[in-house]
Amino acid sequence: xxxxxxxxxxxxxxxxxxxxxxxxxxxxxxxxxxxxxxxxxxxxxxxxxxxxxxxxxxxxxxxxxxxxxxxxxxxxxxxxxxxxxxxxxxxxxxxxxxxxxxxxxxxxxxxxxxxxxxxxxxxxxxxxxxxxxxxxxxxxxxxxxxxxxxxxxxxxxxxxxxxxxxxxxxxxxxxxxxxxxxxxxxxxxxxxxxxxxxxxxxxxxxxxxxxxxxxxxxxxxxxxx
Length: 225
Hints:
Radius of gyration: 23 Å
Number of strands: 20
Helix content: under 10%
Number of domains: 2
Distance between the termini: 87 Å
CATH superfamily of the largest domain: Type IV secretion system, VirB10/TraB/TrbI
Number of helices: 1
Strand order of the largest sheet: 2-4-7-8-9-12
CATH topology of the largest domain: Lipocalin
């Protein structure tokens, strides 16, 4: 009886251990709806075909109570067609796709979305920062749960030959070059700008890692004081 009890306890322990192992990965099903938003102003007056546009996830995406895609995760899109307002066209138009979500580990989750077509008769179309868009996961994606070590901050160092250029991380001003700061592991949008010129990069920061960026702006950016 005593031996059988030990066997039972061992079986329960092994069963529980297998559940923990199985729980280390979660599948995000194809078709999962996600709300995203523009993180920049987009206008048919100055956009260009092939331009990368920056967006962000608007809400935490949870499966079984676990956050699998965090709020503000970086999303990337591409401008596919631009028609500026002219006397002949009579309306501006800008079309773009929303392509993928960048995960904290640097993976790209493909998302499904029809081309966005926006136009206003007689005017250049303008989509302001915060413009909402609905997208869907394009294929099943396996998400691996993070451990405590995965939360260690990374170091981001940003420099530029253009003096006093401003630095933004995820749309938030963090200082002027050169600057060094701690960022959470995961994907981030970095912008270096001055006098209307800007340089943008999407980065993936690893736990305890170091990212060094050198923002290259045209010489004209430093001409105005």
